[in-house]
Amino acid sequence: MTATLPETTARATARPPRIALVGGTGAVGRTFLELIAQRGFAFESIRLVASPRSAGRTLPVPGGTAVVESLETCDFDGVDLAFFSAGTPLSAAHAPRAAAAGALVVDNTNAFRMDPASPLVVPQVNGDLLARRPESGIVANPNCSTIPLARLLKPIQERYGLDRVTVSTYQAASGGGQSGIDELRADTAARLADFSAPAPEDSKFGPGLAFNVVPAIDKLLEHGGTLEEQKMRQESRRILDLGSLDLTATCVRVPVVNGHSEAVVIDVQQEADVRELTTLLDAQEEVRVWREGWPTPRTAAAEPDLVHVGRVRTDPENPRRVLLWLVADNLRIGAALNALQIAEKAVAHGIVGGSR
Ligand SMILES: NC(=O)c1ccc[n+]([C@@H]2O[C@H](COP(=O)([O-])OP(=O)(O)OC[C@H]3O[C@@H](n4cnc5c(N)ncnc54)[C@H](OP(=O)(O)O)[C@@H]3O)[C@@H](O)[C@H]2O)c1
Fold first, then answer.
1. Number of other CB atoms surrounding residue 191 within 10 Å
2. Among 160, 185, 257, 303, which residue's Cβ finds the most Cβ atoms within 10 Å?
3. Fold for the domain defined by 18-141+335-348
4. Segments making up each domain of the chain, as ranges
């Protein structure tokens, strides 16, 4: 395991960026604020932007407070870096106007992930794409389950070659935002009191998530797969630059508050040696391989900025089939941390206003 220090302030910039955080009151936005403080990301100012419901509230931000602005009426003049995590339709409508005003946008939603003018970036995998400002002014942050998977597939592809990837996810309630966390807590309390309690009205998770698992995340598509599963395939292909990668996902919501897990089966082109594979994965930036026991969302939470890997093995009947288990904090690695690491690299490359 190697740790990467923030590159942010290491290189001289004319001045630190002025930040706008759209969705700054949500689960990802609040995590982002925590990470800015923890990683010492240098900034000149932070504006919080959210819905009209939150507009006017004064909330803490690193170094002070900010009055929440409404996205509908806010302008992005003078903003160098705009982070969007308020939902796909809102990013589609408003991120281009932030980019047009000169901001580098880092977008956490599905709006631009397949847009050729907007790179889809996992800094540890294809961070070199941040060497120049994207044509659209927007950098897309991949899906929360795709990011940790791509970080492990990259070295496996380079060493053994990839034939096929089959993944089953076990995704936490926080992937559905703060309201997902709130619903799981309330549903769990209600069912503990009365196991026949009805599912929450308008549950975010269909039949309700407490004491349950739900094999459908995001929209159901015509072919019977879900949008979440399609995102994992399409985004992995784009990030790894493997246009025809054969990747199949089954995405399942589980009653965990935070931290996504994935059971991954990888068919590789050359026979794999487990000891060598373990060493290879452990040498990746911010990856920890558990040689004893295995990670779970609870145990991995002690080191939330690492991708945790366990149960690394080959199929006893097929040495070209690798199997592993991974756990990663979806709010951090799957969203806010990846976005901040994009910003750190973008600043280091001088493509953010103030550093240009
Ligand atoms: N949660 C994850 O693990 C995760 C991972 C990767 C990507 N994402 C993506 O990140 C985005 C936000 O996720 P989240 O988990 O932070 O959700 P969340 O907790 O529900 O927060 C949603 C945020 O969007 C704001 N918002 C809602 N309607 C708005 C409007 N009409 N105008 C302006 N702002 C509005 C909310 O502001 P108010 O407080 O004013 O309502 C809040 O700040 C989603 O697109 C999600 O798909 C989430």
1. 18
2. 160
3. Rossmann fold (3.40.50)
4. 18-141+335-348, 146-172+213-330
